[in-house]
Amino acid sequence: MADTGQYEQTYERYVGGSPEAERRLFERLAREIMKVQTKNRRAGSAGSLARTQHAKPALGVENARLTFHDDIPEALRSGFARPGAEYPATVRLSNASGTRQPDAVADLRGVAVRVTVSDEESHDLLATNFPVSHARDAREFVAFAKAMAGANNPLQKAFGLLVKLPLAVGFSTATRMRRNIQAATRHTVNSLARETYWSRGAILWGEAGPVRYLLRPVVGSAPEPRPERRDPGFLHRELAHRLVTSDVVFELCVQRYVDEERTPVEDGSVEWKDAITPAVPVGRLTVPRQDLATAEAQAAAGRVEELAFNPWYTTDAFRPLGNLNRARKAAYEASAAHRQGLRFSTEEPLRNTVLGIPVGRFFAALNRYVPWHRLPVSASLLNLVFLRKVLRRLNLIDTDVHEAPPKAVPVPVPVDERLRTARSYDGTYNDLSAPSMGAVGAAFGRNLKPDYRPDLFDTPNPVTVSRTLLQRDTFVPATSLNILAAAWIQFQVHDWVNHRRYPVGGKAVEVPLPPGSTWHNTPGGPPENVMRFAENEGIQLPGNRPPILFANTASHWWDGSEVYGADEQTAKFLREAGGSADLRLEDGHLPLGPNGIPLTGFNESWWLGLSAMHTLFAREHNAVCAAMRREYPAMSEDSIYHAARLVVSALIAKIHTVEWTPAILATEAIDLGLHTNWEGPPNNWLNKLGLWLLESHSLTGIPKTLPDHHATPYSLTEDFVTVYRMHPLIPDDYVMREHHFGQRLENLGFQDIQGGAAEAAIRKTGLADTLYSFGIAHPGAITLNNFPRALQRFERDGEIIDLSVVDLVRTRRRGVPRYNDFRAGLHKPRISRFEDLSQDPETVARLKDVYDSVDEIDTVVGLFAENPPTGFGFSDTAFRIFILMATRRLQSDRFLTVDYRPEIYTPLGIDWVEKSGMKSVIQRHAPELAGLLPRDASAFAPWRQVKPMRDGGSDAAE
User: Fold this and answer.
1) Does 949 lie in the same domain as 839?
2) 220: pLDDT confidence band, cut at 50, 70 and 90?
3) 935 and 805 part of one domain
4) DSSP secondary structure string for all residues of 672-691
5) 66 domain-assigned
6) Does the pLDDT at position 49 exceed 70?
């Protein structure tokens, strides 16, 4: 067989100059198509989304047949087009409009045919009853659809054709399109069985090259009776009447390509005239006589109506050609997914668009002189709304490897019904229209363009940077928080991100040590003059390009995978035996693995803080299961497990959103903004009016909105990973106390509560006293020279690492821009002097000692050095990644938006999430701590301390 790729090179021209540029255009057009569907739904009466075009069916049958002629010309014998071959076919006949209007209204008519060759192969043929398209290309097609969206009366249609369309495509193009439409719809249609249908766009026909096809009625078919045109559905009734007594038969013909001038592939508005390329009969499509009024026929019609036809559901040898057809793949997939409730479109109200432009510019100008956090609360909240708009527009970079040009594909397998109501184990099918989005193995995205500089990997020396600027001199506490806040964020990061590493002994990073220094890279190993640790595995890119993309071995979704695992085998292993919905616990604690580390979803870098969090939420899962068993005795254990997993995951997301984050970013504006994210704005008419005028989507909490990826496939990003490097939160020293009398139990160093030692510690101390000990003590402040010394010599997977050096090296090697470029990319002014970063003379002196210029400053160092806004636990630059990604993690997730509802979670489950928080979780599993929790603050604020009882003037535990 000839190389079918030659036709792409010879006959096809890509808009923008490349398949990838054209794909980006088509993705934008696909989003516009979904908006057209929404407008058409509002204009129609059905209330549900219909097809963007061809919304009203006249016939849907599953028992048609396509038979190829015995004398099919030799040149046209290819693939499934074999002499005498017969295949089952599904046929849909319809009006072309995007709204369901009476059949007598002037309109085009269409046919869609699915020819089933085998379980693995089928071919969708789509045609309309006019030989040319009103549009030359996809851009014109979408412009026309937008102009006519929602037009269901003559005045609206006239306005669309005479005003909207010329504004979109220009007067001359609109005139040509209007003439084509008028010529096509002027024809009176009395029977869809007597119409000829043309493909209008070309397809490949194996070795024969490009063809257009048509379906024309077989001469001798019974004439139609005089139609009752006042009947709004007379075309369907005419077909039903006809099929009672006779078959409806069409002849399949093809017209072969001659040359680009007379039979163009790219221009769908040019007719392939029969005088230039005669239609050659190759087969017959037969709709057998039948009674369409039977229950069986009506059920079949309903199934046909649920189908999504797409010309790209075919094979490479018969793939569609030309701009219009290439656009149809993205547009039809989006339209079908939108109609089937698998993909969503959120339209910005016109008032928000119009008012947002001047207000956004006002805040951009204002922020040159007054940062957002120095404005009054209401103004700062609006300022943040517009900052997030800018970040969404400019700082969501798609790193997915997309198909360009489009490829032929089989008809997609229907979504497993179980995945509509339960999270998958590996994060697949959260977005039902893009199953792999955010799943385990999906690449990290980017908020800033990667800056991959191998020449600067070791400049300045990362070990020197660490020892001078990161290493903890004296412990600097974050006095507004407790150590549970430090444990919590590591608990969350383990759910969100994990880069795959090469095994120890495999590919490694080697960091040269400063002169006179040595390092032991393995326990008991020899001293070496390099620091060595496992390299990250990058995603292979074409052309031997450097690895700037890395896969996440956790799912990107907020799905509690640190508790439940990121694959089915792990998840099932962690459940109680016998199919119970409960997670395995031993006397209330996590079961131990052979290495002394608990068995849980993610247990790397284990320490006592993680043990407390994992134990707490494993118990919480079991508590939800117990409540569901009582409330819903008929519910299966598997259903209880998946519902409880949804509840616990959502509760974790809520706690992080409305409790942990306002605790670490302790300002009124952030507290209001984050509560607005979850539950909508406070009952304040001024705030609500401002949001209604400028961003009405914020008038409800995100759980009451539709999923929105903001035009970029959802993923967590390398920049997000960078700003969550918060290791300074971890103290080196811990005092364990019992909560009854406040007595000291013991003093411990981090090494005493790390790895396998953590489980011995929590079993000895107990969960309640562990939580109390952490609740009354402070974590470290996220600042320079406060990196825990215990993590600078840390054993993991058989290697000894300095985590502060690893943080620096990973950020550099993953192409995250250095600090000055990082802040500039997030729309903050660049710094020109070290003094612009810090007002502390000693910090400035250390920075100058390490870096030759401000442009060399490492991202992590700059973020730690920056003076944060009042009340903030980390820098304003880091906060910009946060404000972008915090809402995105909620808004992209189907189970935290459109499927956050009682039908999925159960009424008890929704009530559990809405009424619970970190305090109630702690009280449920350690009720004796209730009186020690902060009264007017979150569980991450310092707890009330029990004054130790003294005996003879000394601590009773000493």
Assistant:
1) no
2) low
3) no
4) HHHHHHHH---S-HHHHHHH
5) yes
6) no
What mean pLDDT do residues 434-450 have? 96
Q: Looking at residue 315, which CATH number applies to its domain?
A: 2.40.180.10
The structural domain count of the chain equals 4
Residues facing residue 109 across a β-bridge: 95
Query: 268 Cβ partners below 8 Å, 6+ apart?
Result: 132, 133, 135, 136, 137, 200, 201, 322, 323, 324
How far apart are alpha carbons 468 and 474 in whole angstroms? 13
Contact between residue 720 and residue 888 where contact means Cβ atoms under 8 Å apart: no
- Picking from 866, 889, 912, the residue at the C-terminal end of a domain is 889
By DSSP bridging, strand 950-951 and strand 954-955 are: antiparallel
Q: Pick left, alpha or beta for residue 668 (phi over 0 → left; psi -120 to 50 → alpha; otherwise beta).
A: alpha
From 339, 354, 384, give the residue that closes a domain.
339
Note down the domain range covering 533: 454-554+725-731+778-889
Nearest-CA neighbor of 874 among 859, 855, 888? 859
Verify that 397 and 465 share a domain, yes or no. Answer: no
Q: Domain check: are 375 and 230 in the same one?
A: no
Provide the token pair at 434: 């893009």
Gap between the Cα atoms of 837 and 573, Å rounded: 50
In-domain check, residue 83: yes
The per-residue DSSP string of 487-534 comes to HHHHHHHHHH--B-BPPTTSSEEEEEPPTT--EE-STTPPEESEEEEE
Asked whether residue 439 is assigned to any structural domain, the reply reads: no
Contacts of 676 (CB under 8 A, 6+ apart): 381, 682, 698, 701
Q: Among all chains, which residue has been given the structure tokens 């400049």?
A: 459
Query: How far apart, in whole angstroms, are the C-alpha atoms of residue 251 and residue 247?
Result: 13
Per the CB < 8 A criterion, the answer to whether 404 and 717 are in contact is no
Orientation angle between helical segments 608-631 and 757-765, nearest 10 degrees: 60
Q: Which CATH number belongs to the domain containing residue 632 in this structure?
A: 1.10.640.10
Question: Which residues are catalytically annotated?
Answer: 494
Is the model more confident about 138 or about 629?
Answer: 629
d(CA 388, CA 377): 16
Asked if residue 252 and residue 133 are part of one domain, the reply reads: yes
Is the sign of the CA dihedral 636, 638, 641, 644 positive or negative?
negative
Q: Do 862 and 796 share a structural domain?
A: yes
Q: Exposed, middle or buried: residue 398 (CB in 10 Å: 0-12, 13-18, 19+)?
A: middle
Q: What mean pLDDT is predicted for residues 534-554? A: 85
Q: With cut-offs at 50, 70 and 90, classify the pLDDT of residue 3.
A: very low
CA distances from 873 to 486, 576, 618 (A): 12, 40, 29
CA nearest neighbour of 494 among 622, 656, 619, 625: 656
Across 268-384, where does the E strand assignment appear? 280-287
**Contact by Cβ (8 Å): 43, 35:** no
Structure tokens at 428: 């697949």
Task: Over range 547-555, report the average pLDDT.
Answer: 91
The one-letter amino acid code at 735 reads V
Report the largest interatomic distance among the alpha carbons of the chain, rounded to a whole angstrom: 115
Q: Are 317 and 393 part of one and the same domain? A: no
Buried b / exposed e over 509-521, threshold 16 CB at 10 Å, is bebebeeebebeb
Q: Is the dihedral of CA 538, 539, 542, 548 positive or negative?
A: negative
Amino acid, res. 518: T
Are 308 and 331 in contact by the 8 Å Cβ rule? The answer is: no
Residues 300 and 265 occupy one common structural domain: yes
**Residues 818, 524: contact at Cβ < 8 Å?**
no
CA 580, 583, 588, 591 torsion: positive or negative? positive
Q: What angle do CA 451, 453, 455 make, to 5 degrees?
A: 165
Q: Give the residue from 437, 393, 407 showing the smallest Cα distance to 23.
A: 407
In a domain, 895, yes or no: no
pTM assigned to the model: 0.91
